[in-house]
Amino acid sequence: MKDILTEIIRKECERYRLVEFGLLHSVEEGVEKLLPLISEFDGDIKAFYLWRKQTLDCFYSKLKYNTFLSGIKKDPAFYRFIYYMQKRLLNTIRKNSIKTEIDKDLAISGRTIAFKTSKGLAEDTIILWEDKLSGSVSPEELEHVCHGFCKTYFPLDFDKLLNRLKKNDSDFWTELFLLIKKLIINVANKNISTISYKEEIVQDSWEKTSFFLQKKLLEGSLPELKSSSHFRHYILNVCVNKCYEAYRNSVDKKLIFTEDGDITLENYDFEDDVTYSADSLYDVDTDNDSEVSRALAYILWERLEPYYSYLTSGVEEKVEIFFLHYIEDKTYEEIVRMNHPNLPVFQSNKLQGKYRQDMVRIRKLLKKRLIKILP
Predict the structure, then answer these.
(1) How far apart are CA 144 and CA 137, in angstroms?
(2) Helix 345-373 vs helix 332-339: angle between axes, to the nearest 10 degrees?
(3) φ, ψ for residue 24 (rounded to 5)?
């Protein structure tokens, strides 16, 4: 009998940290307290679970668990205990739930935000079920109450996530930082294929995007975010901008037009770095298409005057579309939606075709204008 009780009390101590919280000094102490109070187990395995429950009810009644719980519930160690309990319960709840929108939009594969807790969240929400907590007469009942709370409070919605981020909850920011890194890598892989230091660009972009986003959110200076998909779109735009910044800095502002008209930041191997000013444009060889392309890209990117105003005169709107498509990597469909959000589909498709034709013409026109003004 003593061996059976020792095993039962040992498992209770491991699961509910009875020794750590000071309810017991040791497993042996618990057995000694309980042994005189219980009936012998008759060996009927079918009746074991009922006998075990009656034994534990007697055990926690003897220890006055309810009174003990009231005295410890403000202890930081107890908050950590509730956190790990919530975490374990949420893993089970998540397995039986369908994937939520917030996880589809903001959580990377294999992880969750909707069914995530943290030490800060456990401490902040324990007040929501404190009355039921105080009435628990055993750790098992406490766990049952916690499970009921988790089923009503989770999955987290977007407002609850923003609240955790605004409280600077590091556990939830970690999930966002992981998403940012994934998006940065995707942007880099899509747009940067030939340079050897892509890893440094990814790291630099990841750090700057993460810092920018955290600073903006904690300051309350982000635009109004209505949903998790809206938030993801905003994060992606920041990732693209920071990645291009890092890319541009890494290649020392060497810009070219590719044959198909893209503006590309490329790591060409020149003996001397090529930068342009009003004077240095006199050195551009107008018979060398590569030099003309690089000069044109530099003028457009830097908006170098007086050349920029002359080149874009009368075609400013088309140049703006040019930048949206080739620099910000937006599709023609996205550009149409930006400028004409309520346009019917057939008109949108027609306008997309016009944009494509305009971009072919504008590339030729800009080169022609530049050659005309070069000496």
Answers:
(1) 11
(2) 100
(3) -130, 155
CA–CA gap between residue 175 and residue 183 (Å, rounded): 13
159, 94 in Cβ contact below 8 A? no
Task: Please identify which residue in the block is written with the tokens 């346009």.
Answer: 343
Strand (E) positions, the chain? 255-257, 263-265
Token pair belonging to 89:
């319960």
At 234, list the tokens: 């905003």
| Closest to 76 in 3D by CA, of 129, 16, 119, 137 | 119
Measured CA to CA, the distance from residue 6 to residue 32 in angstroms comes to 9
DSSP characters over 263-329: EEE-----SS-----TTGGGG--TT-HHHHHHHHHHHHHHT-TTHHHHHHTT-HHHHHHHHHHHTS-
* Residue 343 CB partners (closer than 8 Å, separation 6+): 336, 337, 351
Give the residue with greater pLDDT, 31 vs 313.
313
Say yes or no to pLDDT of 253 above 50: no
Largest CA distance in the chain: 107
| Angle at which helices 198-219 and 228-250 cross, to 10° | 130
Closest residue by Cα to residue 289 from 266, 312, 257: 257
The string of pLDDT tens digits covering residues 125-152 is 888 887 777 788 888 999 999 999 999 9
Beta bridge partners of 257: 263
How far apart CA 315 and CA 8 sit, in angstroms, is: 82
- Strand pairing class (263-265; 255-257): antiparallel
Angle at 241 between CA 331 and CA 358, to 5 degrees: 30
Q: Tell the residue number behind the tokens 């305009």, with chain if given.
A: 358
What is the residue whose two structure tokens read 């892989």? Answer: 189
pLDDT one-digit tens code per residue, 3-45: 888 888 888 888 888 888 888 888 888 888 777 777 666 666 6
Closest by CA position to 114, among listed 164, 68, 70: 164
Retrieve residue 130's tokens.
């404190």
